[in-house]
Structure formats: C-alpha cells, structure tokens
Amino acid sequence: MTPALAHLADALSAVLPPRALVTDPELIAPWLVDWRRRYHGRADLLIEPESTAQVQMVVRAAAQAGVPLVPQGGNSSMVGGATPPADASAAILSLRRLNRMRALDADAGLAVAEAGVILADLHAAALAAGRRFPLTLGARGSATVGGLVSTNAGGTQVLRFGTMRGLVAGVEAVLPDGSLHDGLSPLKKDNRGYDLNQLLIGAEGTLGIVTAAVLRLVPAVAVRAVAWVALASPDEALALLRRFQAASEAVESFELLPRESLAAVLAYLPDARAPIATDAAWHVLVEVTADHPADDPAGLVERILATALDDALIADATIAASETQADAFWRMRESISDAERATGPAAQHDISVPVDAMPRFMVEAAAACDARFPGTRASGFGHLGDGNVHFHVRAPRGSDPADWYAHQVPRVSAFVHDLVVAAGGSISAEHGIGQMKRAELERLSSPARMGALRAIKRALDPQLLFNPGKLVSFDPPVAG
Amino acid sequence: MTPALAHLADALSAVLPPRALVTDPELIAPWLVDWRRRYHGRADLLIEPESTAQVQMVVRAAAQAGVPLVPQGGNSSMVGGATPPADASAAILSLRRLNRMRALDADAGLAVAEAGVILADLHAAALAAGRRFPLTLGARGSATVGGLVSTNAGGTQVLRFGTMRGLVAGVEAVLPDGSLHDGLSPLKKDNRGYDLNQLLIGAEGTLGIVTAAVLRLVPAVAVRAVAWVALASPDEALALLRRFQAASEAVESFELLPRESLAAVLAYLPDARAPIATDAAWHVLVEVTADHPADDPAGLVERILATALDDALIADATIAASETQADAFWRMRESISDAERATGPAAQHDISVPVDAMPRFMVEAAAACDARFPGTRASGFGHLGDGNVHFHVRAPRGSDPADWYAHQVPRVSAFVHDLVVAAGGSISAEHGIGQMKRAELERLSSPARMGALRAIKRALDPQLLFNPGKLVSFDPPVAG
Q1: Which fold has domain A344-422?
Q2: Assembly ipTM
Q3: For residues B94 and B20, is the Cβ–Cβ distance under 8 A?
Q4: Burial state string for A245-269 with b = 16 or more CB within 10 A and e = fewer than 16
Q5: What is the pLDDT of residues B150-173, one digit of tens each?
Q6: Do B193 and A185 touch (CB under 8 A)?
Q7: Given an 8 Å threshold on Cβ–Cβ distance, is B186 in contact with A152?
Q8: Which PANTHER family does the entry mention (chains A, B) (predicted)?
Q9: Measured between alpha carbons, how far is residue A389 from residues A217, A349, A382, A446 in Å?
C-alpha cells in the first residue's frame, strides 16, 4: 500500500465502520478486472460507504491524501470504465452498500434509488407498485443505478422512452471537493443556470460520484405485440419503422439483423428455429406495447404489416401468437452477441449515426470493410430505431485470434471509426469511452470538443482524482 | 467608443461586410433596453454577422481586443438577459441575420434552424411540411431559436413534449476561444463524454454563442379537445390531471387559475364571458390533441370529466364546441398577465416545485404572503402539469407604485423565494436568471452549485467575455 493510501485508510478508520474498509486481497480481487477480462488493475484498498454522508467523508479524506478514487457499481462496464489503474495508486470506491430505495411514488411516476440499487431490483420494485422502469439491458442482474446514470446507459428498449438521460429526473452526487450536489428535486422546469444533472449523466464518474437518482416510472405493459419481419434491405426496414412510428407512439423496440446473424443464432441455440420460412437478407424484430388491457397492439401491428406486404415493402411477417413465442423471438435477438462470438474472433463496435443515415451506412460500411480487409466479413445488427448498431467485422477464416486482436483489430477499428465520423456519427453510442476508446476519442474529436472536455474536468476536479485515466486524458500524464 | 471597441470595429471592418457593423446610435437604441423596460444598457457597437464563420471571426477578434459580447436574438428576455452592461464596454452581437432554415426533413421529424430564425417562422415552416414544432409562447413573433435554446424556453405547451431541452436534437455554437462546437448531428445515442449540447442549452449565452440547432418536429395536430373545468382546489386539479395522464399521452396543456384571475380577465376583455356559470374557487383549462383525424379526443375528455363529475371531484365542466370557442378559452388564459397588470402593481415570480407539491404550495404560500404582508393578495396561476406557476403578489389597494417596486417587491420576492426553496423548488422555472435573479440565485444556491457554475464559466470563458453580468457573478467584479 502506498503511503498516501495508508494515510487515507488510517484517516477513514476513525470515521467509518470497519466493514467499510476492505484490504483483504482476496475480497478485492474480483473488482480488479472488467467483466470482459480485457483490463486488469491493482488496488490495495476497497471502500464501501453506506450513506451519502460517508461518501462525502471518503471524498474529502481522499482529496486531502491525494488518493485517486475509482467509483464502482456492478463492474459491468463494456469499456473498462470501472477498472482501477495498474499502478495501485487508487482506491476503489464501491457504491454497492448504498442501495436503498428511498422512495417510490406510483402516482407521480417517480422513484428515488440510491446508487447501489441493482437494475433488476429497481424493475421489481416498480412492478410491485404497478409501474415500470423501462430501460433494460443484459447486465440487469448486476448493473447499478449509479453506473447506469454515469454511463447514460441504453439497451433494447430505448426507442420509446430514451436512454437514462430521458429517464433521470434528478441526481444527487458528491463533487470532487466533497460538497454535495443535491439535484434530487424532480422539477420539470428549472432554469437556474448550467444543468449540473445533465453534466453528471454520462460523465463516467470523472466529475462526481453519483449517490442517488430520481427515476421516471412509466405505466406497466398491459399487453404487447411482438412481430418478426423478413425484408430485403435496411432501407425497407427504415421505411417500415416510419410507418410504425406514424401509427403509434408505443413502438418500444425495432431491432434489425442480417441473414448471417440469424444463421449464427440458429446454429448456436439448440432448440431455435427460424420464425419465418422465407429466406431474406434482413430481418426485423418489432415490439409495440399498450398500457391498457383493452387496447389491441396486435391488431395495429397486423394492419401495418398487411399493408406493407401489399405494397411489397416487406417479404414476409409473423406475429408471435403467445407470450412464449414472443419470448422466443427476443431470446434469438439477445443471443446474437454470444452466437457470433462462437463463430470466431471479430472486431466489435458500438456506434451510432443519424437514424436516416443508418441504412446506407450499414450497407456501404460493410462493403468498404470487406474490400479494405480481404477475407473479413462485416455486418451490423441492433437498434435501427435509435440509429445505433453493433458493427462486427469477423476475422478471416483460420485467423490466429492472438494476432487478430493484437494487430488487426486496431486497424479495423480505426477504419470503422473513420467511416462513422464521416457519416456524422458517434464512436460510442451507448457504452461510453472508459479506457477502451480514450485514444480514439482524442484522435477523432474536434479541438473544440476535446478542449471543452478537458477544461470542464480540470475545473471541477483540479486534482484529477475522480476515475483517473477514463474518458479524458491529460498530457503529460498526471501521476496518481 | 472605448479604445478596445474601436480596435475591434477596425479589425472587423477588414473581414465583415459594412452592413454587419452598426455604430449609428439610433439604430442601436432599440437593443439597449429589455422589453419590460426595466434594464437599460449602453453599447456603441452592434455586430450583425450573417454566417457561423463570421460569428467565429467576431468572437476571435473580440477575444483579442478584450471586448465583452452580449448575444441577442429577439431581445424578449424576461430577466434582462440580453441587455448590455451600463458601462458601454461591450458590443452587442445580434444573431438576427443568421436566420436560414438550413434543412427540414418531415419524415425524420427534424429541422435545422439558424439562431436568428423567429419562432413563428419555424412554426410556419413546420406546418408547411405537415409537421409541428410544439413549443410556443407569447413572444413567438420576436423570440429566436438561439434565444430559445440559450434560455431553455418553456411556455404553455410543455406538458407533452417538454421544454426546449426536450426538443433540441443538436446544437452548433461558437465557444469563447472562437472554436466551433459542431453538435448538429442528430444522434439518438451518443456517449462521447460530457454532453456539451446539454451544457449550452440554458446557459444564457455565457458559455457559447448558439449559431444553429436541430429541432424535433412532431405530428401536426389533426383534432383537439379543449375543456374548461370548475373545481374547489388545486388538490382536485392535480387529481384530475393524473386521471387525464393515465388515460392519454396527448395531454398538451393543463393550466390552473384562481377565481380572481378569471375575474380580472373578465373585467379586462370587453367581450369575454365566463365559460362556466358555476362559481368556483379554481378553474382548469385542459387541452388534449390527436394526430389522426379519426381519433376522438373530445370523447375521451368527455368520459374523464363525466366520471369526475360523478365522483364529485369537479364542480362543473364544458368542452369547447368549436375551434372558435377553444380559441376564446385560450385567449382568456393568455390574457391573465395583461389583465392582472391592469388591476395594479404586483410582484411576479416564475417559480416551480415538484408537481405533487404544487397544490399545497399554492395554497400555503399564498396564505403565508397574505399574513406576512398585510393588505397584499397573493395567488398563482399557470402550468400545474409542469409544476410551474406564475406567483403574483398584488400590492395593497392605494399603494404608490414607485414605493412598491423600489422597497416592497424585493422583500416580497425574497420571502416568496424562501418558500420556494423550502418546497424543493426553483426560483427560475422557465425565464432564466439573467440580471434580474443573479443575486437571489447567489443567496439561495448551495456552495456546491455556485462553485460548480463559476468553475465551469471560468473554464470555458477564462476572459469572462460572453454575456458579462448574466447568470453567474464574480467577486470582485471583473472590469469589461
């Protein structure tokens, strides 16, 4: 343990309960590596405060001791955003014990959850009150409210209610000087200067430690219609999406996948079968919900699809006849990542472009990749309605995985990111920057953007102690 | 003209067309006073660039010369936010000539408007394309896109689609160093660090000069139902609002007014008559729209109101039988401010609290004011659904207006603002801070908030040249 860390641990032992200070390497070990096992850090101190006031004590003491703090929730970052630095200079600040639901008001449609509340528990609490927290994602059993807010998380149900930014009505956070930003009052109109809540959402813990949030709850789903559609191209898919959106505000998901993704899933899931017999180059999974049991989303979906068939906009379609079949459709969509991983190494990119530009991007970027890197096969799948796809470039058959990841992926990713920027897009749609995309953010951002990011970071965290090495970098590097 | 201003004018005359530089005092005069005529500034130079590139030239030259810039659109700020300082040190930077509609895509529901586009023209352009820009307010004939973005403007149609923050999909702005923040790409998911678009929205021109914005367009209104409801108290009004919101996502407005506001309007408008014969302490104007001509919002409204009558939640209600009658209802609502002004001097407050807390606040704050300042009469009216009312405290009968405004209003306003803060509310719901509320913001904000606001301002505008004296203040004051 560095002298600064020892000083911090000593100072905190006087004010925190013993169980809040963890130094046992075995207990710390699980928190030193990200869940994809790409980033390995070191830390000799894990701090687990149980209240906002304790977080303030920790932040003040760390500022005094000059110790960097790495905030952690469920440790499910996709970009190494919660992994401590390798030099063992930092302490991990876990928010997992700060996990009370402070309030839940079904009538107002608001819940106040502390940072450590797990997403699945928030879902359950909302449902128990007859409401719904609509955002969901694969890591819902471990991802926490603090991390979801700090990464402006997305997922498969963003189309109707938005990402976390659209669902957060208030933020409580401890700032780097130990002061408390109390932005929990859920005001629908508030023009008191720069919106600090918005600044903290998506800041990846580099400007403040989110300790609680007010979250919007929406009506529970009374009935839903889930359909599988076969069609010729992403252009037709976008035209179909526009028809759905013109007819209903309750389009919850509109997921697009190419023939090869479906083939991978069918090979991967032992008991899966194609929802539609028609062979088609592209497939869409669409979900429309209704809040009232008397509503008929299936009827609406059927009418739209029937007209689209008449107009030859689509090749074929089927509506899930039961909740079981709807779940089976969704299971296929949610298995794509695992199924594709099983087919061999790939370079994966979480990217977005304007929704209207996505059909062209998907086709042209795939062709450009195939031409530039002979033997690779590129394709995107995912959230067409959000302009966000996961764009995968599969290694040539017989590639050596180690060589592929070490030498080819950086070149492939730079090429893909250049195409994204040329299309006016973002190299991080929903996963954030973390450690993984810091250099690419630097390479591809305007001087105006990078200058502003750095200036804001230095202004609010002049000691650069909050989540060092994530999101923004400084040159020369700052010692911990 | 100060030497610094003369230097700036000279430098710009080499790069801008002559008409972009105005020094004629008669042409500058209209822009030196706010429309309420409360703030009077001085300026010997008015700059009217016609392109974003020209704005960048102006900002760079002003930074070089050390000249503060006061951005102006329609000059319709309610808080003196666009009035130059009195010491004649600053130049006015008018964005009115930067007024092209760069693009309008009805299918995507997006328009790209330059800062100088007037709100009414944006409304017209959207309607001509079969769409709607939903935000509207009294000053729509003069307010511009740049000002609307920079003040996060609200209005009477916020309930469904939100304030400007909910309607802005992208921002282009010139930063204080002259660099361009190009945030125009309308990405639905973008997690590349701190959200600079969100930071610029509502920053009142103190961090960047907004030059263009991408704005969301929504479906045009096919049919609407407008109803007038009489009821006993704000509690009943909130319960009624919850019933409407549970039944429909298309509740566009829910405006609450007390008996005395209605009486003032009836006395003020020569041909107006009460929509409802029933005398009641409180009244609600509710509007529900539908995007499809086949929909029946009037039927929905009628069912909800009939049930509410059966339940004795409301005393009486009527649905406008025609568009003419609907317009008449709205005219009464929109005349309240003028009508109340005609009844005598008052202290006016644009405040918000959480929606659920508003009924109690309206009743208790009015009683507290009446008790604290004998002879005054306090009441609030406005956007109950947004938790935002305009809270007026009328001077005692026979008060001398000059004495009232000079000596009583500051005490009354401080008292009202203290009540707002105690209720977890905001002293500026939709008008911003500007000059008018700067001292109150300072007095009533936590050290965390004020510290963060100042740190961000200094970080992005170290010379403190953008809209000096607005929103954040510095001590000691910075010379222009």
Answers
A1: Alpha-Beta Plaits (3.30.70)
A2: 0.94
A3: no
A4: bebbebbbbbbbbbebbbebbeebe
A5: 999 998 888 999 999 999 999 999
A6: no
A7: no
A8: BLL6224 PROTEIN, D-2-HYDROXYGLUTARATE DEHYDROGENASE, MITOCHONDRIAL
A9: 26, 8, 5, 23
